[in-house]
Amino acid sequence: MSSAEELTFVVGRWVRPIVMLLYVVRRLGLMATSSREQRSTALNQ
Asked: How far from each other are the two terminal CA atoms of the chain, in whole angstroms?
């Protein structure tokens, strides 16, 4: 078994990229929906 410090280090190494990926995906999703809404409102006017 690994020590608590090693386990924390390994978990941190895996969690940080996943959190960054989720953040980027969320930002891209918000940008895509906002641009789509802007286009649809521009077409309606």
From this structure: 65
